[in-house]
Amino acid sequence: MKTSICLNKKILVLMLVIILLFTIIPIKSNASELDTVAQGANGFIEKGKSTGGPTMDPIEIKSASDTIYNLLLGIGILLVLAVGSILGIRFMMASAEDKAKLKEAIIPYIVGSIIIFGAFGIWKIAILIGGNFDNTHGSSTVTIQPEGSGSAEGEYSGGGSKF
């Protein structure tokens, strides 16, 4: 009984010391006001507009992405084929006990293959969807003649139908 009271007192004293330390030690914050953050962001955007330096060419980015995609896909295919071949040869040469162990190794092999090819499928879908967004942006201008002048004319260059 005495030891639990003594332990409770020690815990209480320790908690009080921790609370006292938190109140004495100053907390430094690097937070800025919202206006300062907004000014910094606007300055960054203006600097990007005014430099006129080299920009990223979408065709170069697509070419690099395709090269990396094809290279990694080839490596993935080679790995899947190599590991599958090794597992197959070992399975054909194995005894009954070893075949049971190899059957357990086939499950991670299949899951790994699904993950590899699923990742490449997601990558390709993301590239195809991202490429379609570039074609949908356009400008639209509509000019309407006042009543009695004859006709209303419109021009729309964002895809879809013309007025």
Query: Topology as H/E string?
Result: HHHHEE
Dominant shape: flat
Helix vs. strand class: mainly alpha
- Side by side, the strands of the main sheet go 1-2
State the total count of DSSP E strands.
2
The low-pLDDT segments are 135-144, 151-163
Distance between the termini: 90 Å
Percent helix: over 70%
Number of helices: 4
Query: How many whole angstroms does the radius of gyration measure?
Result: 33 Å
Question: Largest sheet at a glance?
Answer: 2 strands, antiparallel
Beta-strand content? under 5%
Architecture overview:
- The C terminus is likely disordered.
- This protein has 163 residues and is mainly α.
- Helix 3 packs antiparallel against helix 4.
- The protein has a domain of 61 residues.
- The protein has four helices and two strands.
Short description:
By secondary structure, the protein is mainly alpha-helical.
How do the helices and strands line up, and which of them pair or pack?
Elements: H1 2-24, H2 34-51, H3 58-93, H4 96-136, E1 140-143, E2 153-156
Helix pairs in contact: 3-4
What features would you highlight for this structure?
single chain; 163 residues; mainly alpha; two-stranded antiparallel sheet; 4 helices; 72% helix; 5% strand
